[in-house]
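PROTOCOL LOG
Step 1. Enter all chains and additional molecules of the complex.
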Amino acid sequence: MIRAAVVGARNAAPRGLLRSLALVVPPQLDAFVLPGMDVARARGLDVESAGLRPVATPRHAAVLLIVGELPESLWDAATVVYAQMARPRAIVALGGDGIGPLPGPDASAAMGQAGLEGAIERVRRLLRTGSWSQETEPFEAAALLPKRRTRRKKKKPAEPPAAERPSNDGTANDGAMHHGAMGGGADMGFMSMVRLTQHLPKGADGLPMERVQTPFGPFFPGLPSGLALTLWLDGDTVAQVEVASPVGSRKSDLSTGSGDLAERWSRRHPFAPAAYRRLVEAAAGGPPLDLGHVAALELERAASHLNWLADFGHLLGYAWLERHAAAWQRRLRTGCDLDRLAALEPKLLAVLQRVPRTPLLARRLTGVGVLDADELEGVGGPVARAAGLVRDARLDEPRYRSLGFEPVVRPEGDALARLSVRLDEIRRSVTLALAAYRAHGAAGAMGAARPEVERRSERPVEPGSGAVVDPPARAARIETPRGVAALQLRTNGDGAAEAVLETPSTAVLPLVEKLAVGQELADALVAISSLDLSPWEVVQ
Amino acid sequence: MSPLQQYALLFGMAVATVGFVAMLYLIARSFGRTVAEPAKDVPFTAGTLSRSPVWVRYHVRYYGFALLFLAFDMEMAYMYPWAVVYREVGMVALLDMGVFLAILFLGLVYGWSQAALRRQ
Amino acid sequence: MTLVAYLLLVFVGAYVVAVVEEWSTSGRLRPTAPLLHGLALLARESLTPRRHDRNLFEAGPTLLLVAAVLALVALPLAPGLLPVELATGALWLNAALVYVAVALLMAGWGPDGAYAMVGGFRFVGQFIGYAMLIVMPVTAVAMRAESLATIAVVESQAPLWNVLAQPLGFVLFLVAAMAVCFLPPFDQPVAAAELAGGVFGEYTGVRLVVVRLGRLVLVLTLALSVTVLFLGGWLGPWLPPAVWSLLKTLAVVLVMLSVGRYLPRLRTDWALEWGWKLGIPLALVNILWVGVVLLVGPA
Amino acid sequence: MIQVLFVVLFGAVAIWFAYKVFTTASMMRSALALLFSMTAVGAMFLALQAEFLGVLQIMMMASEMVVMALFMIMYMMNPGGLAAMEMTHQKRLSIAVAVVAGLLAVGAALFGGWPLATEAVAAPAGQTRELGLEIMERSMLVFETAGVTILVAMIATTALAIRRPA
Amino acid sequence: MSVLVVSLIVAAVLFAIGLYGALSQTNLVMIMMGVELMLAGAMLNVVAFWRYLHPEAYSGQMFVLVLMTVMALEMAVGFGVATARFRSRGSVEMEEAVELRG
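Step 2. Run joint prediction.
Step 3. Record the structure below.
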């Protein structure tokens, strides 16, 4: 059943001119994507060809696109984002209705491009008829009301309490001009500016300035979705950083929950589902790594790196890179038949080769976010390999060695090195996947049919069989696109598991502060983005 | 048209543009008022409700450039009339302006050498 | 009459710029898209942030549009097609463009939002970087034309277009023109990924329409000014003068809008440093070059 | 007549914005009010048929006042004007002095008995040319002195404001 | 009233407002704004005199250019002083300058 109006309709009766104006729906609807474009891409969605134009702020968006199940920790933030959109506003939920306190979606569909396109079509129809309604009600939720506690904390200590005007939200003209000098009886007396500034920290140039506490996340377009940064800005320099990953999992949560662990975990990690599935299987005593696994894992690595590359291109304002990386990412994630990939490989290589030759790019990235080898305790993946450390779990795998695998290592440790390591790894991963595929000799589509691989190897887990009585904890390590993930797993009879997981992003998260503090905002964001950390796999 | 009429036309264009904008606002206003809702009027900060004011003393990092710009910019006041008569006056004009610009460039070089031309 | 014809052409021009911009970002040529987007935006709510500085918030986009329009009307499309014939047209162009920085400063400060404020101050920084690169090449053009009137500037290019007579000035002016319109790679103040829309992030509905319109007219103005100052304006064989002007302008628009797609965004302090340490000396060299050529060249 | 209308209109605008400079609590507004006051003065120059000077004033003052806004935001106690704050002293005296000075100037303007010139003002293009010749010929020394003054100011401001990195 | 007189009156009022600001404000930056307004009034005077008394004398226009330069340089040096003071004292209030001196 279709409602008469979108849930975020404007409050007016559609009459006359308005009725005809309502029929105008632009070819591309401006959309704000939750939790982020990176997740949408990783799910294989082509948002733009579905008729959406991703925008940077919900202010400009008409559609709130929610990709996948939104974790509960993001509900408040999603509520705020929705509340900040201008009406008429519509919600599209893909793959799951768990969208918390938000009003029910105007269109929902199963995950996938076809579902997205159908949902957008429905929203368009809905917008044509129901952009205006006389029965709109203000959207209210607990998350939107001012919290007294945090308010008081944020008040600047130096300001006299009497001077703080009551900030009644909603009155539009609050804080507009009021006459300090001419304001009759409001004589505040002389106030010392020296006292106001003497406690302030001084910058490198010796000027004591105030800092603005600015949240960057969890839905910031230039950062990984779900990463909640709070930056204290001193001008446009980052003076202080607070990092949180609300979407990460707690240690205690890992072992609880019902259902197939491998399935749940692969759903939890949008950027590397196959790697985590394989990790659980390996820890649960699954079959040894075969060539099919190698092909799937390497394709996933390439896709994950390309996804990052698209995000990085977006952050750098390098539209060409964003577009091409996103397209190649999609090709690798969805329905890429390896025969076709083999034919297309030269084109991908051409794109990859062009990136480092971009004018100004090397200059933009050199010396940004430098990490020395001795700061990288416990960090693996491209971040470590870009700082000259040969850390790669694939080196321990005979399968990889037989395929002639060699890790990519660069010594510089800056954002440029991380970029070139990942570019190289994309190339090598595709080559490895193709080599594994050829060696495997299997016919037909394989990259797309990863579920086939997975289904085949699911069998040995048999969580509910109860055949094994209290097996010893098993450990497994796997090289995910972001580095080594290690899992110790102890399954008991009823299928619940006791799991100890180490993920690469957990080790990388503390580096964020070090990279950002003291940097210009643009550099800080580039440095953070170049880490390619996935907040979803952080274990706290 | 006399110059004064030209200026009047310019002023008229400015007023007309403002009028056009006002007309757009009026049209948009006729479509109904904004629904007042909590948090809608708080500037977007990536999903977090940040209600603290940001109007504080802002650390402009390029004030070295700004200070030199204030002085250096004035050179243009002399260069425009000079450019118009340059051909007429000839060599003298080139030398005059050459000396003038050399003097100014000296100031720029001094600022450069004292690290004024960088992010502070 | 001239004014009406001119405004009509400008309106068409701005629309074409919008279509080209859509094409350069989405890769698809959709002639109706800007219109539909505009109408849909008009129908949306226009929010005002809490405790914003109302006057500045409202005046920012309006001033952007006014500045762009006032700069535009001093530029000729063809000999008879110039609404306001100022004797100091080239200077007037510079004067009007300064108010773009004022507009962005207002729009950045107005909403009391952190992203917008950082964006606004970044643009002022950018302005300090490009300001001299706008005025100095114009001076060199005026030297050749012996006048500040835009008509005289075009006429002075009859023997040789300025793009060939002073290529250095042309390059500097083109780059500065892109910086004025905060087009990529100079889009620091409005960067989507860095500041979530930055200066104009808080504008919605009809206010956003005005912002986008102002931006379009601004791009058109700068492209036309490049045409008039360096590409010989309406000069050209066979076709009517106004068509030449528009064709050249369209070509400049294409260049301005597409270059940024293939480059990473420049940091504000780089734009500043390069503008001052490289740009100003080069602009002075350009003036010297033009001066020497005018002295030794044919009268 | 256009001229009278413009002079009166922009005069009023200039005065109104000048008044706003010292009566608003927001420093950004204060700086921008000064900017628009200067712009209005530039428009008055145009109305007084000094085209080059008018456009130059509109341009130069806008760019300088934008920079001024930066420094206002940097160094004022309360740039947003969110807190009512007294920032004046000796107010009565200042008002008295200003009123007396203003009245004297107005009186001089009203009863000056100015001998109006008879010749018409030159066309704008001619003015720019004449000004150029003036700079190149009669006022050449003034012009070069201005250059030296600018140099001194640049050196002074750099020396004062810039702290060299250690 | 002739245009000249109107211009002179406007200039006088601008000057008076600037004078009030320069005298009454406690902050260095605001004092500079007052001085700017006074100079603007002076410039307006010069232009009006040039236009109505000596339209043939371009040294009048030249004088306006010099006044503009003075304004800009006043600002440049003034902000240089303000920066230096703010760095060393954390304040650009003039009263505090007196206080601190002893």
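Step 4. Note key features.
The mean pLDDT of chain E is 85.
Chain E has one domain: 3-91.
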